Amino acid sequence: VSSEPSSKAKDTTSESKQGYETLQVTTTDNITKIMLNRPDKKNAITTQMYREIIQAVEEAAKDDSVITVVTGNGDYYCSGNDLNNFTNIPSGGIEKMAKDGAVLLEDFVSHFIDFPKPLIAVVNGPAVGISVTLLGLFDIVYATDRATFHTPFSELGQSPEGCSSYMFPKIMGLPKANEMLLFNRKLTAREACTWGLVTEVFPDKTFEKEVWIRLKAYANLPKNSLALSKQLIRGVEKEMLHKVNCQECERLKERWLSDECMNAVLKFFEKKSKL
Amino acid sequence: VSSEPSSKAKDTTSESKQGYETLQVTTTDNITKIMLNRPDKKNAITTQMYREIIQAVEEAAKDDSVITVVTGNGDYYCSGNDLNNFTNIPSGGIEKMAKDGAVLLEDFVSHFIDFPKPLIAVVNGPAVGISVTLLGLFDIVYATDRATFHTPFSELGQSPEGCSSYMFPKIMGLPKANEMLLFNRKLTAREACTWGLVTEVFPDKTFEKEVWIRLKAYANLPKNSLALSKQLIRGVEKEMLHKVNCQECERLKERWLSDECMNAVLKFFEKKSKL
Amino acid sequence: VSSEPSSKAKDTTSESKQGYETLQVTTTDNITKIMLNRPDKKNAITTQMYREIIQAVEEAAKDDSVITVVTGNGDYYCSGNDLNNFTNIPSGGIEKMAKDGAVLLEDFVSHFIDFPKPLIAVVNGPAVGISVTLLGLFDIVYATDRATFHTPFSELGQSPEGCSSYMFPKIMGLPKANEMLLFNRKLTAREACTWGLVTEVFPDKTFEKEVWIRLKAYANLPKNSLALSKQLIRGVEKEMLHKVNCQECERLKERWLSDECMNAVLKFFEKKSKL
Lengths: 275, 275, 275
Hints:
3 copies of one chain form a homotrimer. By secondary structure, chain A is of the alpha/beta class. Chain A contains 10 helices and 9 strands. The first copy, chain A, has helices spanning 47-62, 93-114, 130-133, 164-172, 174-181, 189-194, 207-218, 223-235, 238-256, 259-274; strands at 23-28, 31-36, 67-72, 119-123, 127-128, 140-144, 148-150, 187-188, 200-202. In chain A, helix 4 (164-172) packs across helix 5 (174-181). The first copy, chain A, is globular, with a radius of gyration of 18 Å. The interface between A and B is medium-sized, with 30 and 36 residues.
């Protein structure tokens, strides 16, 4: 796992909070920004990174900021679950690995379900897997026109998470959601916007500038009004979302031990090693 | 409160039912039309007007009409809650005002949840606040291309009502709904149609003509079949809607007593007094 | 009821499973294809055909195929419920007919709610009534640009079925759904795609070719991963769907005995006999 600054990194703010190796977390102008910071690994999420995101989200929930933003450093928003997570087999064997992975994932997603303030994704490039499914739990999703949205679960012998099995059909209807969740269709930013997963798309050239002007204006709105409105909207389905999250993680735990999944992950590394 | 005919008023049908000061209610061709009738106040809804709408909706539910239409007189569909409602402080103080306001609002919205026949909004111009959120409880929404849709809750230190915290995410998905409900985005008629809040948009020039031809045809369809089909569609989430309505009103009652809301309303009147 | 091959029939695969008079059912390349096969009757669904579809769906659920496809033979996808079903009055009278019809319909729709694998509609032409409403229970809907989608329930004095009273508002929002379900609006394929009922539309000329290339690719994906993902997505609302199905059939049973429905069906046959 590398957390060294990469040559592709665009953002080098020096106000980073201490203690994060895989993230850069800053609070300015009432906005807490959580930036995934493994640009040389396309911000793939390692076990350590899941834990750090959980911590950063917990802190953002309690701090004085009005809104919280998640974005990625470099060319990618996030390439999803780091498949190297599957190669660190603990002493308890792969059953232990699957069990621990499911517990961690459920905890991770729970933090997004329960987040008490407006949560905004600034999708600065391609998004894959868990970083896409999780978008259904964000309040606003802004994307560069260079972004793509891809959830290749069945290709990898896996199944949907991040509450997407519930939220995606709610956002775009079953006939569209299943083309993504079952059949691995990769959406362009425009398609994702038309289908309702993305709030608005911006030209890549002016993306950061336009979006941050808007976010700064949002962060000046009455803080409690925003938080309480968000909690009102989320409240009505919070119980359902936790139930869905639990079921998705149960299913994934089984999937991770299946031949289909193991073969798919093996093939992935075989292909990679030949490059 | 003025209920005199305004110079902007376009509709002067003489079949008005008796007893309404803020509405014009007529029944013709199996259609009951409830027209908001304070055109010189952009059809802003006063406390009296909430009560009259409740009564008109109750009567329409029982009369012989096949469909019921809500529209506005003049240039506006409705500019939302009349902020003067906040300035008539009763002897019980602002706590009493907030409590009474929440009870009235919950009763008002309940009537739209329970309405037993097809309910159609003919949005003849800009719509603001409660007149927008309530559209999620209508069966059909036709709009002139001159209409806009604006719910500036957080700007006013308030929170969503009219079951919009539940229905808007259902209609357009969370990422779009929150841009309206949390961040005050004003939609054009075309945008509202693309996002699913509006059934169809018509050119302003031919709006009334085209829409009423269609409505008259609808009103000739089998009455019971329409009412029972509507009740079937509504029935599955009626309980949920009443729960949401109750929660929204509880939250608003708190909001109305908050500093954020009071300051925002004060600012509104300050700005107005300077004009 | 005719099950003879029609001159319009395009598909004459010889691997048909035995025992179906109104369907052609084949399994090739991990795909079970259930083709409605009364092309000279626009694939209108008779009582016998409901029963055969139930049987075919049950068999497909158990066989080795990865995905299941429903399509129509000839120019139409399906013209809906065969109104001749209303003319075979059993000895128990029309009450018995309505009761039996509701039991059969509920069982029929239940099989689509519970279907355990990806279920794909290949809509090869116009679709009417139950064949449209049922699409909300499919995982993917591909349509030729020649297809139309029409649910003329209120015109026939009836009410929505196939869980459309729940799924259509979920897919397209209430304001769009009601234009179809209450007011009989016929959608073009493009409209149905924009509204979310159809996953993708193809030019009629290349429809079959393009779609089957895609389906064959889907059928090579990991079988269990697909089935378990689909069950995960469906699972969260299976109970609700069965409840909705039951309510819809109850309501239809009443409707079928109503004057509005009887008059509408009589008018239909009168008109037909004059042609």
